[in-house]
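Changelog entry

Holo records now carry the ligand SMILES as an explicit input line rather than a separate metadata file. Below, a converted record for adenosine monophosphate, shown in the new format.
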Amino acid sequence: MAGNVWVLAEQWRGQLSDITYEVLALGKEVATALGVDLQAVLLGHEIKDLARSLGEANSVLYLDHTALATPVPETFAHALTFAIRARRPHVVLIPLTNVNWELGALLAAELEVGYVNACKDVRSEGGKLETRSLLYGGKMEAIVNPGQSPAILGILPGVRPTDQGRADAMPPVEELTVDLLETSSIRWKRYLEVEAGDIDISKQEVLVSVGRGIQSRDNVALAEDLAGALGGAVCGSRPVIDQGWLPLSRQVGKSGVVVKPKLYVAAGISGAPEHVEGMKNSDLIVAVNSDPQAPIFNVAHYGINADVMDVLPTLTEAVHSRKEVKKHAA
Amino acid sequence: MKIIVLLKMVPDVVEELELAADGKALDTEFLRMIANEFDNHALEEALLLKEKYSGTVTVVALDAPEVDDALFTALAKGADQALKITDGDGTLGTRAGAYRLAQTLSSVPGLLPADLILTGAQAIDDLDGLTAPLVSHLLGLPQLAIVTKISVDTTAGVATVLREFPGGVRGEYEVKLPAVLGIQAAEKPPRYVPVAKVRAAMKSQAIQSVPAATAADGGVGLLPVEEMSKPEVTEHAQMLKGSPEEIANQLCEILAARGLL
Ligand SMILES: Cc1cc2nc3c(=O)[nH]c(=O)nc-3n(C[C@H](O)[C@H](O)[C@H](O)COP(=O)(O)OP(=O)(O)OC[C@H]3O[C@@H](n4cnc5c(N)ncnc54)[C@H](O)[C@@H]3O)c2cc1C
Ligand SMILES: Nc1ncnc2c1ncn2[C@@H]1O[C@H](COP(=O)(O)O)[C@@H](O)[C@H]1O
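Structure line, unchanged by the conversion:
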């Protein structure tokens, strides 16, 4: 009898993340195809109550330990390795967020098996698994058939709709007792919150977002002009924030903010998976990029294959004159 | 402080990527190889730490196309030593690479222990793992892999490290040295070095070639790619065409129709 399909139920600061449900929905499909159960695995301290929200799973296994109260990746890896050795699941699906970024690799190292990272889909046919991963900033896709058990798979956000993984059922819950030593070589100290005071980009209806293609701090003004004309705000991708051209509070993506405005203009952004997960649900996405192959065009509704330096000022101008016309007509 | 930076050559994804004939990898003939973006951040962080606490920075790379350029650039930026690990067997998934790196680092006299081994948070070209966790596991060292800030108490032998979490939140940890840290972003953007300085480094400094240590046991858990392809496009953007003014007007129409203007 093959082992079950496990989904690591990601909880961060005592809350289940949305991606947990997305991965549960995927896990259900894989478990059904393999003819095994779907189990959610919950690690943490005083987190048992979260199990009641994991109804999509056939059952929930949880490990509660004081050492799991703080996010030390190695401690989580030790706990999960222990659970895997005890229960021998066939597939372990790990939500690939920066909460458990290192977890899959650490598990694979401890268990001496492979790890397939950045999966955008997992399918099973005739008992075999097939994974599809995004590589090269989203420009390529690779198919891997992990033949080993357990197959440790890191799953990208958005594999299935969040709602598909929510169910009202109250699954049976079981505790697995684990002996854990707090590692002496890494000590958790505290969270540093984002500096307050700046605008909250998750509340804006219009966002003009700039990426590395904007090329200099001075050029960010071009985006500010357009945002001003449209009554929105400016945000950006990671390189723009790392360069110090915009504050951290304006970063969209995996390590930044998830936004869902009515309009998202992506200017000079390639569309790497870590960025896309933060903006793909925007109502209307317009991308400007000089590379016709940029992955952002697979996410955007409208695309402009041109230089941002030309497009932004022209567009700002057009918006202004349109508003003028409207004012006069009124 | 003794710092080792692991540097990997990857294709520049701004260029067009073509598939090899077997459909399992990229066609390397036309690829432009550059140092992985996050590795430049790792090198920058190492150089900043060296400036602050003094010490040495050694850059280590597995042999790859254009790797000499990247290593000389690192020397020109201020690294003290550059090692190139040769005789790889060509099948370098992350796992095999991590084994080879860890074994070879241990085999070079005087290289370990180092206080810090810095890697990039991620390389864009492979999917079977992450080098920082693997190397740390193989060397028995603590690790954190999406780090944005390091400060060191050299007498106590500990580093205070910031690691990223969602929403711009960061976690602060105290890590005992030696440790392996994956760098997401250096505290300052990676420094620029003029070509003339790189040329000067090529004349005055040398890259040390080091043979890979014994046949790496990297086969364990190595998962081969069955097929590679450009992502199937389910929905592609509708492309707006014409002069910049025409495009701007079309877009204004679209926005107006949605009540956004
Ligand atoms: C753990 C982790 C977390 C991460 N979190 C985030 C995150 O929260 N947010 C985020 O954004 N990234 C994040 N990243 C980084 C992500 O992987 C990418 O590196 C990043 O999104 C790339 O940003 P970019 O598109 O601006 O730059 P690039 O990928 O360099 O793209 C620049 C684009 O601009 C185009 N361009 C250049 N010049 C012009 C021009 N003149 N006119 C028009 N177009 C032009 C190019 O064709 C290219 O497509 C994370 C990575 C990791 C490993
Ligand atoms: N072949 C290699 N040579 C040197 N460093 C490497 C190599 N492969 C990976 N690394 C380091 O490990 C980091 C993460 O790579 P990866 O595990 O491939 O995502 C890279 O950013 C490098 O710092």
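Spot-checked after migration. Residues 37-53 of chain B form the longest helix (17 residues). Chain B touches chain A through 81 residues (CB under 8 Å).
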